[in-house]
Fold this sequence. Notes:
This protein is mainly β and about 170 residues long. The chain has strands at about 5-10, 10-15, 25-40, 45-55, 55-60, 70, 75-85, 90-100, 110-125, 130-140, 150-155. Strand 5 (about 55-60) and strand 6 (about 70) form a beta hairpin. The two termini are about 20 Å apart. The model has no long low-confidence stretch (mean pLDDT about 95).
Amino acid sequence: DGVIQAAAVEGGNIYVSTNIGVGWTEKDADRNWTSVAVSELIGAVTHMTAVARGSKIYVSVDTGDNWSAVATTPELNWSDVAMSNDGSIRTAVVQGGQIYVSIDSGVTWIARDSIRNWVKVDMSGDGVNQIAVADSDRIYSSTDSGLTWKASESNQCWRGIAINDTGSIQL
C-alpha cells in the first residue's frame, strides 16, 4: 500500500519511511548500497532485502530496524534486488556475475543463469514471473520463480525493467 518505503544510498545508509515518505529514518551501516526491496506488511512488520557492491545480500525481518548478511551469498558486485509481495521469493543480480534466487524468504540463495553484466531485475507480486536485463545483452524472463531464464529481444544498453503485479505487463 506504499505506507512503508525504503531507499538505499550508495556509500551511505538505508533509509526507511513508515509514513508514506513524509519522514525518513537512517538504518544500518554505510555500504555501497545499490538496491533495496520491500514486502507487504507481514503481521506487524515488513521484510526487506538489500544489496551492495562488493558485499553480501542483507535481509531485515523487522521493517529495517536490524539487518543481517546472508551467509550463503558471496561478496560480489550486486546491482539490484526484487522480492515477491509476501517476501518468500527474492532475486538478486550481480554485475559481472549470475542471478541469485531465494525461494525460502531469503535464507538460502542459489546461483542461476550465466555470468553477465546484470543491471536490473523485477518480479510479479507472487514472484512467479520475473524479468531481468544485462548491460550490452538481452532481456531475460522467467516463468518459474527464477529457476530458468529465457532470452529475448536484441542486445542493447539496457538500464531498467519493470513488471506489473500480475506479471501480465512487462516494460
